[in-house]
Known about the structure:
Belongs to the GPN-loop GTPase family. This is GTP-binding protein. Keywords: GTP-binding, Hydrolase, Nucleotide-binding. The protein is an alpha/beta fold. The chain has helices at 34-41, 55-60, 104-108, 127-135, 155-161, 178-200; strands spanning 11-14, 17-28, 47-52, 71-82, 87-93, 113-118, 139-145, 170-173. Strands 1, 2, 3, 4, 5, 6, 7 and 8 form an eight-stranded mixed sheet that branches. 33% of the residues are buried.
Amino acid sequence: MVSRLSLSEDAYVRSGAQQTAVKILVVGHFAVGKTTLIGSLSEIAPLSTEEQMTSLSERVDDLKGVQGKTTTTVALDFGRLTLSERIVLYLFGSPGQQRFVNLWDDMARGALGALVLVDPERLADSFEVMDLVESYGLDFAVALNQFDGSAVHTPEAVREALDLLPDTPVVTIDARDKASSVNALITMVRYLQKRAALEHA
Length: 201
């Protein structure tokens, strides 16, 4: 079980090594790339609860811009990534649809922060998810998932469009690319460390 830990506490989480376990949520609206990101990052075989979409789900899930999508997460995705000898991340990906919002109570419990994935073609779809993140009191960073051929936005434009606080990190990633996704998580962890230091100052 992963509990909410400060980044200075220790927990034995892998191969007897003394490390800090950090629970991170990977969130975002429907079809933004959460499963892809966790799959590209996880050092273990990721747990995924993707199921085939049916004609019933097509009636309630907005497929605009993602017409080729055939599966959807129905519970959670889970992966693990060791950032250093001291920090290991447990990544929990949430479903993006409103009908699964009841899962957030359990998923958010003990989480230190959230990485919010954003689709540059559907920025407005992110407001509902960010409202949820803020309602649970989670610090977060924003990762703009820049797919081939998608609209190009600068971090500054995304910050303005999403009405983010000045210190909220905004990074551009390709969820299929491990290096850029790792960079997003490192940016977020550094932000969490800074926030924790300010709270304890």
